[in-house]
Amino acid sequence: MNDGIDNEFQNCVRKVNNMKSKIMYDDFIVIYGLYKQALFGNNIVDKPYWFFFHKVAKWNSWKRHIGKTKNDAKKTYINIVNLI
Fold it and tell me: pTM of the full predicted structure?
């Protein structure tokens, strides 16, 4: 049932990895949070020390998707990556 979404998600992950240096930082942070939610579900990791701005931004991005199903996170990730 989810094979189509899973395949499309993996294709988008490869696309992002191949063009990582060309993705704007704000877009990267958004898709990072969706990626983590799609793979691991809700963020239960301790928030990084405030001084590590990049890590905090990534943590916050993942935390924004709390409660979103892995499937919904994959669909949103796919939609955003296809717009980049």
Answer: 0.85
Which residue range is the domain that position 21 belongs to?
3-83
Q: How many domains does the chain have?
A: 1
| Cα separation values, 41 from 36, 38, 49, 54, 74, Å | 7, 6, 22, 21, 11
Per-residue pLDDT of the chain (84 residues; tens, 9 = 90+): 577 899 999 999 999 988 877 888 888 999 999 999 999 999 888 888 888 888 899 999 999 999 999 999 999 999 999 888
Q: Are 71 and 4 in contact (CB under 8 A)?
A: no
CATH code of the domain containing 59: 1.20.80.10
Q: Is 83 helix (H, G, I), strand (E, B) or coil?
A: helix
The angle at the Cα of 66, spanning 64 to 71, to the nearest 5 degrees, equals: 110
